[in-house]
Amino acid sequence: MEATNTESKLRHVEKDVLIPKKMREKAKELCADKVEAFTHCCKESGFFMVFKCREENAALKECLTRHYQDPAFFEECKQEYIREKLEFESTGIPTKNRKQKLPTSM
After folding, report:
1. Cα–Cα distance, 1 to 74 (Å, whole number)
2. Distant-in-sequence, close-in-space partners of 9: CB < 8 Å, separation ≥ 6
3. Global confidence as pTM
4. Residue 94: what pLDDT?
C-alpha cells in the first residue's frame, strides 16, 4: 500500500528527469555490446567516425530507442526508483553509498 501511495506522490522532476535517467543507465547496460562496438569504431576511425561508424551508431540508437519507448521498461525502472526512494527514506543512506563496502578493521 505504501508503494502505491508513494507512486501517486512522485514529483514532476522524478517522473521527467530521475526515472528517465535510470532508464538511460539500464538501457546502456542492456545494449552494452552495441555501445562497445560504437566506441571501438569511433576510437579506430578518429576524425572520420561520422562517416565510418554510421552503421554502429544506427544499431545503438535503435537498441536504446526500443528500450526508451517500452512502457514495461519504464514501469520496471519506476518501481526500482520507488524501492530505492523508500529505502532511502527509511535508512537515510543513498543507494550509491549503501553499496560501498565497510572497512573490516577500525
Report:
1. 20
2. none
3. 0.72
4. 77
